[in-house]
Amino acid sequence: MSTAPPQIATGHGADVQRPSAAHTLVREVPRFALLAALLVTIGVFGALRPDSFLTIENLKSILTQAAPLMVVAVGLTVVLTMQLLDLSFAAAIGLCGALAIVLMSQHGVGWELAVLIALAAGAACGLMNGILVSYFGGNALIITLATGTIFTGVEFAVTNQQTIIGGVPLKYGEIATHQTLFGLTNQVYIAAIVAVLGWLFLAQTEFGRYMHAIGGNQEAARLSGIRTRELKVLGFIIVGLGAAVAGILLTSAASSSTPQVGAPYLLPAYAAVFLGSAVFRLGQFNMPGTVIGVLFLGVIQTGLTMLNLDTDVIYIVQGSILVSAVLLSRIGSGSTA
Amino acid sequence: MSAEEGATAAPAGRPVLAVRGLRKRYPGVVAVDDVSLEVAPGEIIGLLGKNGAGKSTLIKMISGAEVPDGGEIEVAGAPVHIGNPRDATALGISVVHQELADVPGLSVAENVELGLGYPTLAGTLVNWRKLRASAKEALGKIGAEIDPAAPIASLSVAEQRLVMIARSLSSYVRILILDEPSASLTEPEVERLLSVVRTLSDQGVAVIYVTHRLAEVFAISDRVVVMRDSRLVGTRPTAELDRSTLIEMITGPALAHQAPVTHQRGRAGGREEKKEMLRVAGLERHGVVEDVSFAVGAGEVVGLAGLVGSGRTEVCRLIFGADKRHGGKIFVEGREVRIRSPRDALRNGIVLLPEDRRHQGAIGEFTIRENVTLATLDQNRSVAVLPHPSRRKERRVAGRYVEQLAIRGSGIEHPVRLLSGGNQQKVVLAKWLEHGAKIFLFDEPTLGVDVEGKQDAYESMDRLASEGSAVLFISSEFSELLTVCDRILVLVEGRLVAELANEGLTERDIINTCYESQVSHV
């Protein structure tokens, strides 16, 4: 749904206002404002650090760092499309990643099985959220805040809050770090595949259409015979799976597990998706937008780090970017709230 | 307090409220046309009229929710401009709306004093004792013995309404407007409400009492004001009126009828041979729909008439599985069917075109194409086994309906949100036609639709029936039921009270039935 299909004239134009040129300009410019901002940002960093920023090595590094964020942001886009929230995925990242490491390191489980169990755990987290929100009518914000705490608790129970190093098969480490084509690591390709799958799902399948309908008008969707409850559960499961994949990538890259490895991803994931809603389809969450949003954050993060700015500045800049993104997407959608 | 002041400020006989030549038009309709009215202090006016007669708009203009297009309003002899609700409050005009506007999480006292600024301790903390005391006083003034500390959610609807009245009186009030105050109240509760209104009137507050219930009008009002077709058609002292005269004032003279829209079905007659398509028996939803049973045959258009709040919409929602049913059975073509969700209804060929198109009928952000194919997406796949909608097939389907139903827009990729009400209605109909159905529930399909759109809706229903479908048609405009329907069912307060064959039937017959079947309160 990223590109508008061609319009078909039907010959009835009676009660339609044709947009004026000025109106079109106001509507169309913001659609590409984020893309322009991305290019400008790259230009600025490139000018400030010409030797290090505009290099192939740096591009590879940005893409590699962005991979786990990409995976969770894609899942998050799916629930946000239905006007739902999930605040538990960061905790689910930590739980799933730690679970895989503990299974391999302390219980001698093979890496393939550990990956499957981690994925299943992510899906189970999502299923739990989905059932609580969709069937028991819980408020998604509060429910996922609460379940996130539970997931972290389970992670601590599994790891005793310890960093776990050693006993992790080499093969597991290679999931994220093995270099395949063009010198890029596996996780870049995994993130790309996830993003493409997410786009196909949301923009090209019946499920995606129904989820957009739920986000647009849940009651009208229900009265059209759409299975709104089941689809909401499915959405949460997708976020859970995204969290599991991100957890696997993070612990694979480190070949170890540290407590609450997903915590730093909560805000950037929302930032990326909301930034994305300010491109292509204004005011609407969309997968290509999310991809741009993730890359934008990656560029900013790397750039600011290269400028030797402190973490506090990086935080302030990231927060400001999120606020700007939200406001930008509202302007575009013509909302007044 | 203030109520007495209001009474003394205006000498007896001098109107506390006077409106002259008040006028309001909305796009395409005149809602209130040249209405003049005077209300004396302490007077109780019963304001009556059919659905859509213009009562609500009149009240809105007096209370500042709408600004008149013409005419004057005087309060206590002085011309005033009421631009917003705050202006009205400052002038001592207060409205208690039909919908309860309380804050559920707060206590009774907090609700009564809401918006006044609570009494404080040391300028910051709420002085709870004082707050409760003043709320208790406000409640006492209307004779309501309600604990000010109780959470508002623990009260009955009647008690909540009394709290709302107490709130409306907590500031300076000389004109109190009650909009359908007795809706969903039981008989003893109504009596209590009326005695409160009498107390206020004794204190000099002018009351405008809007209702459909004639018994209450006779029990309480000094004067009756009737509106019809946006105009004020009669003002009479209640003592001079009897029930049938009043009904006649509400109904008006028999109207010249529109030509019936039955060309596709052929003229009435032979209806008995029609095969039964839909039958409901003992339909029940607590407090809203009680023991409703009827049948609709193939090829029939059956009207569902009733005043606002009579349960028409609710009956349709129960049949469609949109709300939970507390009792009753539904039969399709003589076979009992299990309907517990809209999906179940769709599976049995029942579709609903909801009253509130904007919130229930269509997805505003979706295009015409996406709305039309929403219920049939799996039949428009590129490859049968993949759940991938083919835009090409979707466009073909949507294009066909745009043509067939003459949906106006700049094309099938036009967002439905930007279409007119009539065209949105057609988009919803197109969705169901494509899905396929044999039982169509039309809930107020002509609400807010222009004349041409209305005619289109009649033709659609007529065509569906002629093709063998069963159509249930809800409308507040009884004349259009007479135009299209074979039979008309009348609902009063959630009960089916009459089934009228549309032969020589007039609008007045339907309205009489609505009013005369009311359970006599008071």
What does this structure look like?
The complex is a heterodimer of chains A (337) and B (522). Helices cover 72% and strands 1% of the residues of chain A. Chain A is mainly alpha-helical and 337 residues long. Chain A has a single domain (31-331), classed as ABC transporter involved in vitamin B12 uptake, BtuC. In chain A, helix 4 packs parallel to helix 6 (140-159). Chain B has 522 residues and is α/β, with parallel strands linked by helices. Chain B has 4 domains: 1-92 and 175-251, 3-Layer(aba) Sandwich (Rossmann fold), CATH 3.40.50.300; 100-171, no CATH class; 261-349 and 438-522, P-loop containing nucleotide triphosphate hydrolases (Rossmann fold); 358-436, no CATH class. Chain B has helices spanning 2-9, 55-63, 85-90, 108-112, 128-141, 157-169, 187-202, 214-220, 243-251, 312-319, 342-347, 357-361, 368-372, 391-404, 421-435, 451-466, 478-484, 507-516; strands at 17-26, 29-39, 44-49, 70-75, 78-80, 93-96, 120-121, 125-126, 175-179, 206-210, 223-228, 231-237, 276-285, 289-297, 301-305, 327-332, 335-337, 350-353, 439-443, 470-474, 487-492, 495-501. In chain B, a hairpin with a 3-residue loop joins strand 7 and strand 8 (125-126). In chain B, helix 5 packs across helix 6 (157-169). Mean pLDDT of chain B is 83; it is low at 1-11 and 267-271. Chains A and B meet through helix 9 and helix 10 of A and helix 11, helix 12, helix 14 and helix 15 of B.
